[in-house]
Design goal:
mainly beta
């Protein structure tokens, strides 16, 4: 097993002013040339679910209303998993290179959530034209934009 340590590069900050990714000062130079990308992939830590008992959960009872009765955790987007790492594609509104802050439209992370890494969203690597999903979720929106108006609360068994 590796002894490498994963470190946060910043945090999610949500307030009345908006939602921001605020980088730690030493990582601000890594923002260079990020302008022009409309979206970025944010890898973040499900810090509210980082408990030893959650890391041993490998199966779950039907988290989605139309899903199979039992699912492996890797077939879900659950925060309860062996390594509580999340990935969210977000729209970039603005980048403040002096402050090391990226204003984003939305992220499904809580305030003060640790950010692990950022990668530019590039269709050549991130967009899949001919993907398929199981029938139980085939009615879900086909894009981030369509998801904004979708009744997600009707899909989950844990709301």
């Amino acid at each position: 097993m590796s002894t490498h340590k994963v470190n946060s590069i910043g945090t999610i900050c949500s307030s009345k002013e908006g939602t921001f990714i605020r980088l730690d000062p030493e990582f601000v130079p890594a923002l260079k040339a990020l302008d022009g990308f409309s979206h970025i992939n944010v890898l973040w830590w499900f810090s509210d679910f980082d408990k030893e008992e959650f890391r041993s959960v490998l199966e779950t009872e039907q988290p989605y209303k139309n899903a199979p009765q039992k699912m492996g955790i890797f077939a879900t987007r659950s925060p309860i998993r062996p390594n509580p790492i999340a990935l969210t594609a977000v729209e970039v509104i603005d980048i403040d290179y002096q402050k090391g802050a990226i204003q984003i439209a939305y992220i499904d992370a809580n305030n003060n959530t640790p950010v692990l890494d950022l990668k530019p969203y590039t269709p050549s690597l991130d967009k899949v034209k001919n993907c398929s999903v199981p029938s139980w979720c085939s009615h879900w929106p086909e894009s981030l934009e369509e998801s904004a108006n979708f009744a997600w609360e009707d899909e989950f068994n844990f709301y």
